[in-house]
Structure formats: structure tokens, C-alpha cells
Amino acid sequence: xxxxxxxxxxxxxxxxxxxxxxxxxxxxxxxxxxxxxxxxxxxxxxxxxxxxxxxxxxxxxxxxxxxxxxxxxxxxxxxxxxxxxxxxxxxxxxxxxxxxxxxxxxxxxxxxxxxxxxxxxxxxxxxxxxxxxxxxxxxxxxxxxxxxxxxxxxxxxxxxx
Length: 161
Fold this sequence. Notes:
Shape: globular
Number of helices: 1
Number of strands: 9
Organism: Datura stramonium
Radius of gyration: 16 Å
Protein name: DUF3444 domain-containing protein
Helix content: under 10%
InterPro entries: DUF3444
Order of helices and strands: EEEHEEEEEE
């Protein structure tokens, strides 16, 4: 169960109405650690009239980089990169979803998620790939909220403000 104060400046849930969900959409899903949207789900089926969603979790699928593999083995959060379809899950709660994502499917079941220009992302503050060597001391995250100023470019990354 998630409890949050009623906001007066925006109705964040209007984009999560039952009629907003459709097959083949990718959504960011809140985690249970600090309620940040750091999981991704591929909508497989929307049931009606009783609202129910069948989804497939997208799980990190790093390339051969041993540091990325160590990060995933340490169960540290992965916000962008390569993802593959994982386990199937059913939910009747649209409030587990944060927002719809735009990503690229590069092969059957393989997706690439990167920040896109004009999006807002929470970046880890003082992030280091070596956190995986001591993950228990790196589970209290600090963030910087940024606007993405450029699309991702291989070997160059992105610009943020």
C-alpha cells in the first residue's frame, strides 16, 4: 500500500486511469525501497471490464562488461541500458505504475532504455560503478533531479541540466 499526500498542483494519477493502459506499452514501475520508478514493465494484456493487467518485467541484460554484471549480481538498481523480458506478473493496481516510457526494441524481447531529451530523471549523486564491491553500504541513495538536454549518443552519453 502506498500513502502519499494529496497534491494540489497536479493530478499525477490522471495518466494512470484504467483506459490509459494498452498492450505493448512500456511503463516505469515504483520500487518498494524508496518508491522511485526504477523497474520497467511491458504490458502484455489489459483485461476489462474488471481492470487487470498482465505484464512482463524487463530485467537488466548487460553486455559483456564485468563491472555491469557485478552491479546486477549485487542487486543494485539499473535505470538504463539493455533489458530483456523476464517474469510475468498480474496486477489490478494502476498506482504501481509511474509513467509510460519510450524505449527501443532492438530484437525480439531485447529493449534499450536511455534518457531522452526533455525528460526528467533522478541521477544517483556521487555514483560509482564500484558500489557493487560493497553494496550494503550503498543502498541509501541520494539523487540529483535533472532535465535531459540531449538524446543519448554512444560513447558520448547525454547532457543534463
